[in-house]
Amino acid sequence: MSFHIPLASYVFIRSFKTATMEALQRRMIEEDMVQYKLFLIQPGSSSSQQTEERLTHLVEEILAKVAPLLIQYIWQHQPINLKYHPEKGRAFSAPQKGSSMLYVFTWLKLGTHTNGWRVWISFTGGIPAHIGGSTQFGDNVEDEWFIVFLLLQITEAFPELAARVEDNDGEFLLIEAADYLPKWLNPDTSENRVFLYKGELHILPCPSKSTSVGFSKDVVPSVAQALELLYTHPEVCRASSKISLALKKRLEGYPGKIKSGLHRAHCFIPAGIAIVLAQRPDLIAPAVSAFYLRDPVDLQACRTFKTFPPDTRVLTLVTFTRCLYAQLQQQQFTPDRRSGFTLPPRSHSQYKAHELGLKLAHGFEILCSRCRLPSSEPNAPVSCNPQWKGFMESLSRNGYFHGELEGSARYRELTRSAENFFKQSVASKSSALSPGEEVLQLLHSCEPFNLEEMKKNESQLPQEDSDSWLDITAQDLEQLLQERSGGRADVGSQNSSSTKQKQHAGDAEERGKEKEDNIEEEEAGYSLVAISQGMKNFLKAMSSHEGAELPWSSATQPFNIDPDSMANALGRLLGGKDEALDSDDLDDSDNDDEEEEVEEKEDGFCGQAEMKGTETLDSLKRYMDQMDEELMKTNVGQSFKRTNYNKAGASGDSSHPSARDDLPRDNKLEEKEEEIQPLDVDVNLVTNLLESLSSQAGLAGPASNLLQSLGIHLPPNSDPA
Question: What are phi and psi of 238, to 5 degrees?
Answer without folding.
Answer: -65, 135
